[in-house]
Write a structure and sequence with these properties.
The protein has 450 residues and is an alpha+beta fold. β11 and β12 (347-355) form a beta hairpin. It has helices spanning 3-6, 84-89, 101-109, 152-160, 188-203, 246-250, 255-270, 285-301, 310-319, 362-378, 391-394, 411-437, and strands spanning 72-74, 119-121, 124-128, 131-136, 139-141, 168-171, 209-213, 229-239, 273-279, 324-331, 334-343, 347-355, 382-384, 398-408. It is built from twelve helices and 14 strands. The two termini are 36 Å apart. Mean pLDDT is 86; it is low at 1-68. It is globular and about 65 Å long. The chain folds into two domains: 3-47 and 64-233 and 400-437, 3-Layer(aba) Sandwich (Aminopeptidase); 241-380, 3-Layer(aba) Sandwich (Aminopeptidase).
Length: 450
Amino acid sequence: MNSAESLHDTRGAAPVRASVAGSQATAGPPPESDATPVSRLSPIAVCHDNGPAMQPLVPFAAPPLPVAASPHLRTDVTLAEIAPAAWDALAGDALQPFVTHAFLTALHETGCATPRTGWWPRYITAWHRDTLVGAMPLYAKTHSYGEYVFDWGWAEAYRRHGRRYYPKLVGAIPFTPVTGPRLIARDPGVRRALLAHAVDLVREGEFSSLHVLFLPETEMPEARDLPLVARSGIQFHWLNAGYRDFDDFLAAFSHDKRKKVKQERRRLAAAGVTFERRCGRDVDADDWAFFHRCYTATYRAHHSTPYLDAAFFARIGAVLPDNVVLVIGSRAGRRLCAALDVYDAGTLWGRYWGTVDEVPGLHFEACYYQAIEFCLERGIARFEGGAQGTHKLARGLRPVTTHSLHAIGDPAFAAAIADFCARERRDVEHARDALQAASPYRTSPAPASG
């Protein structure tokens, strides 16, 4: 079996052929290889153009600070050494709760994303003199848990061919499949420098690969002329079309789909189940303890280990009180379930859920309908319901495309993975079209952007 065959993934995934162009740097042979030294990240195509004849020199005019063209890049500065205000200022208007200094610090200081759990922070920071001008949250990893862009098949192919897949580098927010800034800088030149430096870390041979997950489409151009392969996936998001209330939202559905949602909600109410929503400042210690009990119980019911602990949830409730809302379902004075959502002025993200009792329709109400009602009350434009489960489509969420970038150090595997991703991307596009056609809306809405 050759490398390409061994990368076949029977899960029917879906992603992309990347634009891969070039870096001219070379390095030694891949780990555990007797090959003659070659470029580990050989570009598919490298263009050389000597350009026009040299023009007369013109006076140099210094650009305004910061100098984005040549930031000083460092990998020896920890998040704890950076002032929260300086970190949060990097993203400007693109700042979201998950990339704040407070959220990332909570992951680290509560022990959820640490070397003990297989997440070694290797952040890249960009500086102009003593001023922070960019950063890339980056982790060295010895497993693929908590990422949500699945590469287990790639790791297994490496193993079958006697190659080492771990450690690898992951540019992501741990345990958070949410699209957001991964190259955190206002200037495109700084963003590109951060990404190129991360690729160089693979080229040096310590890591098999680089995986930048759930980056926005606006950051994809920074990969141009870098040896990166793009993947795409599908999530489900709800868009607020200016609905007055939940009934106005349902009025956009076809008759049968609208009737089904109303029946689900009526049955739950008839069973005596009620819901309340508590925003961060109103969530007390007992609420957090109950939520964590639900969260861990649901993970264990699915034979999984929870990634996040009670200390983490209590911490984000304390440091991000204006960005969290807890939905609690009860019956006859007994609490049944809880869902924790994160929000800002424009978006609500459905993140964590759990239950201590099974009641038909409980999950749909706690995780989707309550979230949509919250958005309607607050004028929030978008609710991101995450991946997996076409059941979300019937509740008014629409398929959107997500993006990731991957640099593979081994040239043979890089070519095989690029071919796999090209086929996967076609599958994703076809799947999205099919899902869009099955929309519950009376008229097909314009596709939601990722």
